[in-house]
Specification:
Strand order of the largest sheet: 5-2-1-6-7-8-11-12
CATH topology of the largest domain: Rossmann fold
Order of helices and strands: EHEHEEEHEHEHEEEEHEHHHHHHHHHHH
CATH class of the largest domain: Alpha Beta
Oligomer: single chain
Structural class: alpha/beta
Number of domains: 2
Number of strands: 12
Strand content: 5-15%
Largest sheet: 8 strands, mixed
Length: 401
């Protein structure tokens, strides 16, 4: 087994001040790690009182098959908008922020990278591929290990009251299994060994080695679940709290929008991703068709195992209040221009038809008055624009063209 024990005593830097980033920072600090939370200067004010107190409370149901929980008040070592202070001497760097913010964060990060650092992207949105490309363009040759996990290890939300954010995070569930990969795959052993030094992944007792980082990105459940659920469930979302007589903020697409017809669209979108993965010669998380036909869908297996299923005839109360509450939500503004648009471009380049994915983009364009075909991520962004499937294999596995 590769020795990564040097990470044990090194600080952990978390990049991103949203719910997921705060969660990774709090999870590490609450077990005694030295933790630095970084937020971009443009958004630093949004951290509220956390900037001064450096304290975050973890609460919530925290459902998990094996009963894992992490509750209490965590005190971070540092909360900063200075990237150098955040990552200097750190062993692990966790990147947990919307993909649309990758480039401005990476521009600040790259000059301060150090040999031996391990970077974990905690939702597979092609961040490792963008970072590697930007490092080459900046002539950065630091020997860092970079990898991605298909999803976050938890379902997490920032608590608020009276329109004000609280320094409290509600965790609905903890994952027991996640799919991940290093980029390039030559670093796979080191990436997986480094997981044991990241406390926010402690609940993940069954990590699965994906077949390249593209496998991890195809296995990200967000585009599959969020886009059909939000777009086709928009009537329920926008009427919740109006004519339905409910509190707007109890809404959840899982609890109140998902239905067998939407499940059929989610399954069809997944099948298109499977065809893309096959064309590119990489893996993807396998799901049986019937797994899609419940309120918990394919997400339930991540935290409660493959037998977990909430029938459509029952309520999914643990998902209440998780939203989204507007069409202008990351379920659309991230999952459409990042995942769906890149899948659309891959289909065009490698001869795979993607009518369901394309329809999600068209409908999102109309609903948000945007044009994600023009503004979405491109194959050039992730370094694949001029590569054949054979060249992509070499690039993903060896880091060479």
């Amino acid at each position: 087994m590769l020795d990564m024990s040097y990470l044990e005593e090194k600080p952990i830097a978390v990049l991103g001040g949203g719910a997921t980033g705060r969660g990774h920072a709090a999870c590490a600090a609450i077990v005694g790690k030295e933790v630095r939370l970084y937020e971009h200067p443009d958004f630093f004010e949004g951290l509220g009182c956390i900037r001064e107190t450096r304290q975050i409370e973890l609460s919530g149901l925290q459902q998990s098959l094996y009963g894992f929980k992490r509750k209490g008040i965590a005190t971070l070592t540092m909360v900063t908008d200075d990237m150098e202070n955040a990552v200097k001497g750190a062993g692990l760097i966790v990147v947990s922020l919307p993909a649309v913010g990758f480039k401005p964060f990476f521009e600040r990060l790259i000059p301060y990278l150090e040999d031996g650092q391990v970077i974990h992207f905690t939702t597979a949105n092609f961040g490792s591929m963008i970072l590697r490309k930007m490092m080459r363009e900046a002539a950065c040759n630091k020997r860092v290990i970079i990898g991605e996990w298909a999803s976050q290890p938890y379902g997490i939300r920032i608590q608020s009251s009276g329109g004000q954010q609280l320094p409290e995070l509600r965790i609905n569930y903890w994952a027991i299994t996640l799919r991940g990969a290093a980029f390039p795959m030559a670093d796979q052993e080191a990436f997986f060994e480094s997981k044991k030094y990241l406390p926010s992944l402690d609940s993940v007792v069954d990590p699965i080695e994906a077949d390249t980082v593209l496998d991890a990105c195809f296995s990200n459940v967000n585009p599959i679940l969020h886009c059909p659920g939000t777009i086709l469930g928009v009537g329920a979302m926008e009427n919740w709290g109006l004519i339905y007589g409910e509190d707007k903020y109890t809404f959840s697409i899982y609890s109140h929008a998902y239905c067998p017809s939407i499940s059929k669209v989610q399954l069809a979108l997944y099948k298109e991703e499977c065809a893309l993965a096959k064309a590119l010669g990489v893996g993807i998380q396998h799901y049986d068709n019937e797994t899609f036909f419940s309120r918990s869908t394919i997400l339930g297996a991540e935290h409660m195992g493959p037998k977990y299923k909430i029938p459509f005839e029952e309520q999914y109360q643990s998902a209440w209040t998780t939203g989204p509450f507007s069409i202008y939500n990351r379920y659309i503004t991230e999952d459409i221009p990042v995942g769906c648009h890149l899948f659309h471009l891959m289909g065009k380049k490698y001869g795979i038809e993607t009518p369901i994915i394309d329809s999600m983009i068209h409908l999102a364009n109309v609903m948000t008055e945007s044009n994600y075909f023009e503004t979405g991520f491109t194959l050039e962004d992730i370094g694949l624009e001029n590569l054949s499937p054979e060249q992509i294999q070499k690039y993903l596995r060896e880091g060479k063209f």
